[in-house]
Amino acid sequence: MYYIDDTGEESVIRSISILAAASLAALAAPAFAQPHQGHAMTEEAEVKTYTAQQFFESTSYRVGSPSGFNFSPDGEFVLVNSDATGVFNAYKMPVAGGEPVPLTKSSTNATFGASFFPDDPRVLFTADEGGNELNHLFVMDMDGTVTDLTPGEELKAAFAGWNADGKTFYVTTNERDSAAFDLYAYDAATYERSRVFTNEGGFSISDVSPDGRWVALSKALSSANSDLYVADLSAAGTEPKLITPHEGNVSYGAYTFTRDNAALIYATNEHGEFSQAWRYDLASGRKSPVVEADWDVAFLQYSPTGRYRVSAINEDALTAITILDQSSGAAVTLDGLPEGSLGSIRFDPAETRIAFTLTSDTSPTDIYVADLASGASTRLTKALNPAIDEDDLVTATVARFPSYDGLEIPGILYRPRGASAASPAPAVVLVHGGPGGQSMRGYSAMIQHLVNNGYAVYAINNRGSSGYGKTFFHMDDKRHGDVDLKDVIASKGFLQRFDWVADDRIAVMGGSYGGYMTAAALAFHPEVFDAGINIFGVTNWVRTLKSIPPWWGSFRDALYDEMGDPAIDEERHRAISPLFHAGNITRPMLVVQGANDPRVLQVESDELVAAVRANGVPVEYVLFPDEGHGFRRRDNRVTASEAYLKFLDEHIGR
Fold it and tell me: If you average pLDDT over every residue of the chain, what do you get?
């Protein structure tokens, strides 16, 4: 599926999940319940308050691409990405423990390691400029020389994996046609390349088989309907083959090819509300189920030989991972791990070890390695700032409420320590981006900073969110700014029922589509929330839908299907755009924007700020000249979070 939001390191997982997302939330809504507190808390317990600087002095870690070599050829290092310097750079992390060794040293542009080379210390990495999302792929040679493998202006490139023999790697770029990504094969020794697939059918390139013969292609037909193709790269001139003929609305997406090149594992919601993993045999065309669950299968991958299969289930906004040893039929058990969610499983070439991430509500993502035979795990990083006592942070709970029409709406609720009937906490309704995103359990420095400073946060998954089934996901199609916004409005009443929430001090906040929902709430329901924080939110759908970046070409029809075609739906887009109704806004607003944002242009925020200021309403505006859609620089994230807290303190108090 598509996203207005920058989905960062989980982009592959999220795109598959949304592509086949589905589920009808239960219409028989139970009475809401007081959430439990994650850590033991007593009336006497003293909780230290921390600054935004302290929260963001925690280090963010990511591992390399799932289609790359993440262990160095000698097995002594793992490829990781870290913002330890304040800007993301690529590092090699010693498996035996110790400080990471920097590979790139950018002080301006976020830079991410994609893969080691299989037989020598060279590294592939990507970077854009100032958040403009025009990523290029670079190689760092053994002598440290850096070469741009995808030179040119106004192009976007991505690493697309390795051939199993390690002699060829694949890259996608839109240099030929800004609206289409072609597939290139690069010689790992000389960097000479050839175009192996010319994308003239509006496809998205999903995966390349280990032997380089097959490429999986997806095509969005609408927000609820898509097709999956395979193309045989060994047969020049052969047209891609449709492997998912169907009637009605069904979503499909590719997870991965099997390591023996015999089959494609794909996602589909053809058989129910949720996305399942199925197998398509390339020789016979036979289809069969692989993983079925009562939630979406978020992703599926294999180890280098295919002995191990890794699958993830999005269970009520928490990802559950299974590592299956297919030779024995037994799941791998990892020992010595704290409570949390695993992710980003990466195998060494010999399949004796894995590197992976682990995170929880109270701890940022850390990198671990584990021995597959014994299950013994070793922690390589400590991401949380040592100045912060993890016991001072708050574990979230999943909390549901009946909305305006009785539909049950889920969300993630954070209760600040010390909040009680005698000392109620002001609250923030946090709206995710998308459209079609999902608020998940896990660590957020921004949220924990607000909660630690006394604010309750409810991260709502309004109708239209992914992860709860295809019916729930499509409930807001062409009804954006209406039914989904009504859920957000209704969530205030839900929070007011808790005696530990200050029912007269509740704000709304969100980024991207969530920023739109914030501005829409203030414009169309001006008396509901007491303040709003709009983070690079759409304010003028007429302009936004006409200025979609060209590299979204293959998803444009799906976006128009969900939001409406600007050529024929301009009147409705104008009706739901806060900019044209800014005269209604009477409550204080904070607007935060990146000047290089290619998705929500700076002019969106400029015009809204000017219009609301004309009402005599307090408006604060924070503009980052070196950011795009989502803030990559730590100093900017600190500045933004400080602005959020200062604004909330001033307008809804603590």
Answer: 90
* Pairing assessment for the beta strands 425-431 and 180-187 based on DSSP bridges: unpaired
Mean pLDDT to the nearest integer, 38-53:
68
* Total number of residues shown for the chain: 654
In whole angstroms, give the CA distance from residue 619 to residue 589: 5
Contact predicate 176/182, CB 8 Å: yes
Q: Is 464 left (phi over 0), alpha (psi -120 to 50) or beta?
A: left
Question: What is the four-CA torsion angle of 509, 514, 516, 519, rounded to 10 degrees?
Answer: -20
3-state secondary structure (DSSP) of residue 318: strand
| Site of tokens 């390695």 | 369
Give the C-alpha separation, 213 to 235, whole Å: 9
- Beta-carbon contacts of 46 under 8 Å, excluding residues fewer than 6 positions away, are none
Residues 554-582: tens digit of each pLDDT: 677 777 888 888 888 999 999 999 999 99
Q: Which residues of 200-223 are buried (b: 16+ CB within 10 A; e: fewer)?
A: eebbbbbbbbbebbbbbbbbbebb
CB count in 10 Å sphere of residue 40: 7
Residue 463: other Cβ atoms inside 10 A: 22
CA distance 631 to 622: 12
**pLDDT confidence band for 163 (50 / 70 / 90):** very high
Phi, psi at 63, each rounded to 5°: -100, 170
What is the strand order of the sheet 276-281 is part of? 252-257, 263-268, 276-281, 287-291
Q: How far apart are CA 99 and CA 94, in angstroms?
A: 7
Spatial distance between the Cα atoms of 180 and 174, rounded to a whole number of angstroms = 5
Q: Tokens 């993502």 correspond to what residue?
A: 365
- 10 Å CB burial of residue 46 (0-12, 13-18, 19+) is exposed
**Is the predicted pLDDT of residue 17 greater than 50, yes or no?**
no
Beta strand 276-281 with 287-291: parallel, antiparallel or unpaired? antiparallel
Is the distance from CB of 22 to CB of 473 less than 8 angstroms? Answer: yes
Q: What is the DSSP letter of 553?
A: G
**3-state secondary structure at position 276:** strand
CA distance 160 to 183: 8
Q: Are 646 and 638 within 8 A, CB to CB? A: no
Give the burial string for 261-281 (b: 16+ CB within 10 Å, else e). eebbbbbbbbeebbbbbbbbe
